[in-house]
Structures are given as C-alpha cells and as structure tokens.
Amino acid sequence: MAKFSYEVTHIDKNSGARTGIFHTPHGDIETPIFMPVGTQATVKALSPEEVERAGSQIILANTYHLYLRPGEKIVKDAGGLHKFMGWDKPILTDSGGFQVFSLSALRKISEQGVEFQSNIDGSRHFISPEKAIQIQNDLGADIIMAFDECSAYGIDHKKAKESMELTSRWLKRCYEYHKNEEQALFPIVQGNFYKDLREKSLELSLPYVKHGIAIGGLSVGEPKEEMYEMLEFLKDKLPKEVPHYLMGVGSPDCIIEAVLRGVDMMDCVLPTRIARNGTAYTSTGKVVVRNGCYKEDYSPLDPECDCYACKHFTKAYLRHLLNVNEILGGRMLSLHNITYLLKLMADIRQAIKEDRLLEFREEFYKKTGYDKKLSKITFQTKKSD
RNA sequence: GUGGGAUUGGCGCAGUUGGUAGCGCACCAGUUUGUGGCACUGGGGGUCAAGAGUUCAAGCCUCUUAUCCCACC
User: Fold this and answer.
1) Residue A58: which of A98, A6, A96, A22 has the closest Cα?
2) Strand A33-36 and strand A59-62: pairing?
3) What is the DSSP letter of A330?
4) DSSP β-bridge partners for residue A22
5) In percent, how much of chain A has pLDDT > 70?
6) A173: Cβ–Cβ under 8 A, 6 or more apart, which residues?
7) Average pLDDT of span A93-97
8) Cβ neighbours for A187, distance < 8 A, ≥ 6 positions apart
9) Smallest CA–C1' separation from A150, nucleotide
10) Which of A94, A142, A148, A264 is catalytic?
C-alpha cells in the first residue's frame, strides 16, 4: 500500500534513457517530465485548467515565498496547497534552499540554519531544516525537498566541501523531522563542480533516499558542457529504482541532453519567464515575438502547436499584445511555451519507447538551430538594492 | 496689422557665460535556467526651420524670410 512508487517502463536500447511512471497520492506522473514552476502557488499568468490542458502532470511551488506570503498556516487552514490553489494533480515544493542561494545578500548561514531578511519587507526570519520541513508539511505537496545549500559556480574545493557537508547534515535533520507518509522527501545531491564531492554527497544521501533523489547546484552559470559532464558522471551512480530530479533545468536543448544522461524530472522558470518578456519556444527554435519582423506576420506562432494561442492568434497579433503590454500577450506566450515543452517531453518519451532518442536529438538540433555546445548557462544572484 | 513666445532625431522636450548636440517615449536587436524580475542590456537615427552675417569657433549673438501659438487692435 505504498503511497509512492516508481516503475521503469522502458529503456532506450541505444541511448540508455528511460521512461517510467511515478505513482503519487495525487496521481501518476509519466517520466521523463518537465514541471512548470508556480512559485507563489500559481503558474504565473495561467489558470490551473490551462496549465492542465497544456499537458502538465505536476507543478512546483515554493516554500520560501509561501512562508512569507500568505504564510503556511493559511494554506494549511485552506485545506492544503492542492485545495488552496485548485490543482488536484501532484505538486512539488522546493524547500527554500535555492532562495538561500539567490538571495545571498540578505542571508546569514549557520549550522543551525539560515537567517533571512525578507525580500518583501526586510523582516528577519530563521529557517532551519526542521522549519523547512514543517512548512512543507503544512503546505502539503506530494513531493517535498530537503533543505540544502546551493553553492555558487566557481568556488574552491574547500568551500564546496564544507557546503556539501552542511547540506548532508541538514538532510539528516530533515529526514528525522519529516513524518508524513503522504509526502515524499527527496534528498538533494550537491558538491558543486567537483566530482569527488558529488560522489561523496550522493553516498551520504543514499541512506535517506526513499522515493526519489534530486541533483541540485547545477545550471547556476556554468558552461552547459560542464553541467552535461557532471550529469554523465552521476548517471550510473544514481539509484535506479527511484526517479532522478534535476533542479532548475531548463531550455529545450538542456532538457534533451539531461534526459540522455539519466534525468527523469526537471523544472524551470524559463518558459514562463521568457514568455512574459516576449520570447517563445517553437518547433523551429526560439522566437522573440516582439521583434519587428513579425509586425505583419499573419501566420501562427508555431504551426505544429495546437495550443489556444497558436490555434487562434497570429504572430502579428501576439506581437501587438506584447508591445502594448497587454496581459493577454504574456498569458498566451506562457500557455504556448509550457505547451511546447510538455509536448517536447511527450515526444521524448515516445522516442525513448521506440529506442530512437539519439535520432530525435539530431532532428531537434537540425530543426531548431540550437547550438549543440558551448553556450553558457546564465545565472546571476540578485543584489539587494 | 501690432506686441510677445516658439521652431533641435518619429513624438514630447533639455541644451549652462558661444567651442562641432543630449533626455524620455517610440523604434531596432539581444538576454533570461530549483522566479527578489511583465525585468534587464545594448543599438540605429538629428547638424539644431531656411538664408545671410559676426567670430579662430554658433543650436546658443545679429539680420532677413517662413511657419505655428498667445494676447491686443
């Protein structure tokens, strides 16, 4: 009567990539899967119905943000996150560990936990591993994350080791505090860009792996090749009986490369963020819809897409909406982008089932024109003003 | 007709005691990776209403013309 279980349904004979089904209390998730991000208990600009119709099987929400507003008690009293936001498929909450990283100017880290200053009003807060789990217990997502420290790209081995070890000690505390069987706690492998540390982090995490494991600390500003290399390194070391979640990735090309390297789950703000700023992913590559060349382009954004925006609107109209800053523009591009990515994931799963993911990748690069190599992942931590 | 004010990139405007032009918006392009962002970065485009003069040098001074605005007759 396990609440969670993972079954591998197929392994691509040529690439080794796998498909699977992750059973959760709120339904099954077919992997590999992309998870749209809904930080504040909403995938920005979209209704749950739209998110579901786009093909989402699971979405993310964020502990740090919901703790600050409206507060986990409100969410709990509302009946939990699923009821609160009107989404009854699986939800994953990030622990707030990443905010420790990205809000670096406003924090103080100690063995006990992290002292933050709220980015909203400057008030001080303390989040320990126990507190992070308590908040996530109250929020009530299906999958919850260990409270970790995500270290920055470029730090030295000594610092990376200390950080990794702290994350590991925090993991133990998270694990011991967490009691709710309805929620799967995923440990997070850290270790920066040092293979020995990654291996050690994985080894220290294994005792706490029940339903899944995550890879954190990647996609933080390194060249893509470095991320791929680390995934490659970890691929056969990760426990095969649970899903592997790569945190914070990514763009369509990164997603394919990650799946080829053993990743089953991913999330990223990219599709919804760039949508709000006027960029779309399409079957022929990235399109900055705001650009002047679409002014009189009365064709759909992506003829291969069957989302509402592509069925009803032209590029000229979408460009107009974006240029005059109409809400519908960002909404439609958000809808399109997650539809595109979720369709991409479905295609990837299909390709794996037919043992042709490697060919699929080649076709993908040919059609979209993405650079296979060398592009750098951008990430900048915010400064407090 | 008289008096006053104005005329600087597409639009709206700055331009100090004269030394070869800036800003906002618009336009153009790029960026965005466990969301402090509907944000950020960069770019093109004026010879300053027209003409003449003073000066080593004029958008800034003088004169003429044109157009517009406001008063007054």
Assistant:
1) A22
2) unpaired
3) H
4) A6, A29
5) 96
6) A128, A129, A130
7) 94
8) A146, A171, A175, A205, A208, A209, A213, A214
9) B34
10) A94
ipTM value > 0.85: yes
| Active-site residue, A302 included | no
Strand order in the sheet with A184-186: A59-62, A91-94, A143-145, A184-186
Nucleotides of B under 7 A from a protein CB: 26-40
- The DSSP secondary-structure symbol of A145 reads E
> Can you list the alpha helix ranges (DSSP code H) found in chain A?
48-53, 63-68, 72-77, 81-85, 97-102, 129-139, 157-177, 195-205, 224-235, 252-260, 270-276, 308-312, 315-323, 327-353, 357-368
Where is A9: in which H helix or E strand? strand A5-11
Bridge partners, A27 (sequence order): A24
Among left, alpha and beta (phi > 0; psi -120 to 50; other), residue A308 is alpha
Residue that has been written with the tokens 């109409």 in this structure: A326
pLDDT in tens, A273-332: 999 999 999 999 999 999 999 999 999 999 999 999 999 999 999 999 998 889 999 999
User: Residue A297 catalytic?
Assistant: no
Domains annotated on chain A, with CATH: 5-268 (3.20.20.105), 275-354 (no CATH)
pLDDT band at residue A379 under the 50/70/90 scheme = low
pTM score, whole prediction: 0.94
